[in-house]
Amino acid sequence: MSIRITAQARRGVVALTITAGLAVGAVGCGGGGDDDKPSPSASASRDSGSKPSAQEGQAETPLAELKGTDGLLLQVTSAVRDSGGFVTVSGNLKNDGAESVAVPPQTSGDETEVIKHGPSLGGATLVDSKGRKRYYVLRDTDGRPLTTTGLATLNAGQALPVFMQFPAPPTDTVEVDLQVPTFSSGTIKISG
């Protein structure tokens, strides 16, 4: 019974994260023909805004930046341990290059069950060198990775909010290495 509740909670978190990502994407895609004035939604996310959040403060100084191929950059803004026994790593996947670039299919990993659900960050791992363990992205009961999916092509300068969920290392482990295929690895600190 507890596995079912945990799976439902994870699905809820995934649905909430996807909904938030879609909302952010919809706001980012909007715009008018007046190029002289910044849109209110764009300035609210970059300026102090009416209610600064903890995530906004973290976005200014990423925990780690992983460089990928063709100008791709993964900026990790948070790694939060949850009482449910998992760690959620969040950040932005950005195209720092001058041209559009497709997210490499290797980022999905090589597991058939994960690949069949489309391009994702399902190949990511957390490495606890102290405990000598590697943690893979969690999957739901249908084999879908609990990470951002549907990754495609990013235009020059475009950024996409992303997340990955992993089993939590022991509570005394606060530093882990994040590894994503085709990206450099980076050390991140887990909070919570």
Explain this structure.
By secondary structure, this protein is α+β, with helices and mostly antiparallel strands. It has a domain at 57-189: Sandwich (Immunoglobulin-like), CATH 2.60.40. It is 24% helix and 28% strand. The protein is built from 4 helices and 10 strands. It has helices spanning 2-29, 40-46, 54-60, 112-115, and strands at residues 64-67, 72-81, 86-95, 101-102, 125-128, 133-136, 153-154, 159-167, 175-179, 186-189. Strand 5 (125-128) and strand 6 (133-136) form a beta hairpin.
Q: What is the secondary structure topology, with strand pairs?
A:
Blueprint: H1 2-29, H2 40-46, H3 54-60, E1 64-67, E2 72-81, E3 86-95, E4 101-102, H4 112-115, E5 125-128, E6 133-136, E7 153-154, E8 159-167, E9 175-179, E10 186-189
Antiparallel strand pairs: 1-2, 2-3, 3-8, 4-7, 5-6, 5-9, 9-10
Summarize the structure.
This protein is of the alpha+beta class and 192 residues long. It is built from four helices and ten strands.
Descriptors:
Lipoprotein, single chain, 192 residues, Immunoglobulin-like, 4-stranded antiparallel sheet, 4 helices, 10 strands, alpha+beta
Low-confidence stretches: 31-59
User: The CATH topology of the domain at 57-189, please?
Assistant: Immunoglobulin-like
Total number of beta strands: 10
**Helical residue percent?**
10-25%
Structural Rg: 17 Å
User: Strand arrangement, largest sheet?
Assistant: 1-2-3-8
What percent strand?
A: 25-35%
Helix/strand class: alpha+beta
Number of helices: 4
Mean pLDDT: 79
The biggest sheet, with number of strands, parallel, antiparallel or mixed sense and barrel status, is:
4 strands, antiparallel
Q: What is the correct CATH architecture of the domain at 57-189?
A: Sandwich
Specify the overall morphology. Answer: globular
* Element pattern in H and E: HHHEEEEHEEEEEE
- Give the CATH level 1 class of the domain at 57-189: Mainly Beta
Protein name: Lipoprotein
Organism: Streptomyces caelestis
